[in-house]
Amino acid sequence: MNHNLKDSYISFFIEKGHAKLDSASVIPVNDPTCLFNTAGMQPIVPFLLGEPHHLGKRLVNFQKCFRLTDLDSVGDKTHHTFFEMLGNWSLGDYFKKESITWSYEFLTEKLMIPIEKLAVTVFEGNEFVERDEESAQTWLSLGIPKERISYLPAEDNWWPSLDQTGPCGPDTEIFYWSDTENPAPPKHDPTDNRWVEIWNNVFMQYKRLENGEFVPLSQKNVDTGMGVERVTALLAGVDDNYKTDIWLPIIKKIEDISKKIYDDENYTKSIRIVADHMRAIVMIASDDAGIRPSNTDRGYILRRLIRRMVRYMNQLGVDISTDFETPIVDIIVRQFSSFYEEVHRNKEQVLVVIKEEKDKFAKTLEKGLGEIKKALSKLENGILPGDVAFKLYDTYGFPIELTEEVANEKNISVDLDGFREKVKEHQDKSRVGADKKFKGGLAESNPQTARLHTATHLLQAALKKILGND
Ligand code: ATP
Ligand code: MG
Ligand code: MG
Ligand code: MG
């Protein structure tokens, strides 16, 4: 299914005059400011900004994506940290009408999705920019009834965000009614998560200047992204991404190893997290960029993923000193090797990375968890002191985010300032001067800061480079 979806998407857009691009690495090349590719458009930024692409003005691909910002959503039915995105682009060529029409045609004629299960959102307009009537009218003309078209504000339907300077514009999001029992309600309610977003078409149409003005862009672009895992679930007729060919073999293996049942709601979330993190770990560690667990930046994220995965395996009752990882890695490598040869080529490295990091953490996990429990039971003010968090980090190898997570499960917060203070003290003492040491981790754990690392950030940099500081 997965295989067919990618194939039919690519051939559909090739028929519409698009050239196929290879998937870029999940690690952005030559851009240390951006930790991971979070969307298919990210590697395409220079061309969206006007640099000519040797393959032409219409491009299509599938792309490896990783979103740390979605880490806390992992455990639900539709958000993964690592996922694949299908994308098609117009670099100053076709615009809203063609883009929307082709999305509609692909969904209803190629994937045979009944129109009654679709709803869309468009930009409602504000004091600077008129509402996106052209998109709405195109949807209407294709037969989407008006009660399935919602006009929403910039938070939902503007890219990247209203206060960002640089290229920007309205977008339209396409939703699918995932509830297999009940028919879709007449109006799209943005808070009803049975409406699952499957595709997002961005119309880059303005440039926002430093003085706040929006001026039309001379090269208007289209950037679309559709999630492979979500559409695979839709095609399989299930309302849970993990109940598809993509995830089931991994889930079954985790069930075998842990002797726990996915459908037992005591374990569903933990099993999803282990499955998700194992896949992300394999895809990051197999990348030719050679990311290895460390205390900074990408390495820190890989470390967090492995340690968090190990903690959940432990929670599922698995003896983590055993080799549970090899059979799971085997499945993931088999699934991806025909698309990404490096995953196969670097499999042994991946196993070594996981094993070494797991062993380091496994030795202290039980003690560390015991230590956290002890500290939590003694608390009076609902705040875990910074020095305890530091001890957990320093002695037991608990990434601060993991300590926070365990504490938060008990409605207890962590004194992060106190923790930072301790880190600093420790650094001053050992004079490693590695102030950077915790930056990656702490910065990335803050969604605000993390967003800076996304495409927007890249766009600003590229824009400055290409257009100067206008
Ligand atoms: P959502 O609102 O559901 O979080 P999004 O608006 O953040 O999605 P986009 O940035 O528009 O998502 O990405 C384009 C498409 O990629 C989405 O329409 C969806 O199909 C898919 N997608 C986005 N985030 C994830 C994720 N964490 N896991 C799986 N698929 C995703
Ligand atoms: Mg999202
Ligand atoms: Mg969305
Ligand atoms: Mg979206």
UniProtKB/TrEMBL annotation:
Gene Ontology cellular-component terms for this entry are:
cytoplasm
Q: What organism does the UniProt record list as the source?
A: Paenibacillus baekrokdamisoli
Q: What keywords sit in the KW lines? A: Aminoacyl-tRNA synthetase, ATP-binding, Cytoplasm, Ligase, Metal-binding, Nucleotide-binding, Protein biosynthesis, RNA-binding, tRNA-binding, Zinc
Q: Which GO terms describe its molecular function?
A: alanine-tRNA ligase activity; aminoacyl-tRNA deacylase activity; ATP binding; catalytic activity, acting on a protein; transferase activity; tRNA binding; zinc ion binding
The record's subcellular locations are: Cytoplasm
The shown range, given as first to last of full length, is 1 to 470 of 591
What does the record give as the function of this protein?
Answer: Catalyzes the attachment of alanine to tRNA(Ala) in a two-step reaction: alanine is first activated by ATP to form Ala-AMP and then transferred to the acceptor end of tRNA(Ala). Also edits incorrectly charged Ser-tRNA(Ala) and Gly-tRNA(Ala) via its editing domain.
Give the reactions, separated by semicolons, that this protein catalyses. tRNA(Ala) + L-alanine + ATP = L-alanyl-tRNA(Ala) + AMP + diphosphate
Residues binding Zn(2+):
H453, H457
**E.C. number, please?**
6.1.1.7
Q: What is this protein called?
A: Alanine--tRNA ligase
What does the UniProt entry state concerning the protein's domains? Answer: Consists of three domains; the N-terminal catalytic domain, the editing domain and the C-terminal C-Ala domain. The editing domain removes incorrectly charged amino acids, while the C-Ala domain, along with tRNA(Ala), serves as a bridge to cooperatively bring together the editing and aminoacylation centers thus stimulating deacylation of misacylated tRNAs.
The cofactor named in the record is: Zn(2+)
Q: How and how many cofactors are bound, per the record note? A: Binds 1 zinc ion per subunit.
Of which family is this protein a member?
Belongs to the class-II aminoacyl-tRNA synthetase family.
Q: What GO terms describe the biological role, i.e. biological process, of this protein? A: alanyl-tRNA aminoacylation
Please tell me which top-level EC class this enzyme sits in: ligase
